[in-house]
Design a protein that fits this description.
By secondary structure, this protein is mainly α. Helix content is about 65%, strand content about 0%. α1 runs antiparallel to α3. The protein is rod-shaped, with a radius of gyration of 40 Å.
Length: about 120
């Protein structure tokens, strides 16, 4: 696709360059091609052909660019997975011992009234 896009760009450049030269030197070149007066139909044909060449060039270039972006995204995803594996190898998970939860010392209470809590002892 890349080479096709480059060849179409060169063809488009050569096409418009040749017709630029043709219209600049129309006095001498017009009679060679049997176009003594410039007719609007001939100009329309020239510009439509140029438009078709331009559209073909633009489409191939866009398709090529889209393919490259998709390839770059795939490579970035692969690179991120390799980075994650490398990080996992460099930083292995160490099982941390679980900390025991301290038990609060509670007195046996009798009845429905809770004992008074002293906040200054804590």
């Amino acid at each position: 696709m890349k080479t096709l896009a480059h060849y179409l760009q060169l063809a488009l450049l050569a096409y418009f360059f040749l017709f630029l030269l043709f219209f600049i030197f129309f006095e001498s070149l017009g009679s060679l091609f049997g176009m003594d007066p410039i007719a609007s139909s001939s100009l329309v044909k020239v510009f439509l052909t140029g438009l078709l060449l331009f559209l073909a060039t633009w489409i191939t270039k866009t398709l090529h660019t889209k393919g490259l972006t998709e390839q770059i995204k795939k490579m970035e995803i692969e690179m991120n997975s390799v980075k994650a594996k490398l990080y996992d190898l460099e930083h292995p998970k160490i099982a941390q011992p679980s900390k025991p939860v301290p038990q609060k010392n509670q007195e046996e209470t009798s009845g429905a009234i809770r004992p008074r809590q002293n906040f200054t002892d804590q």
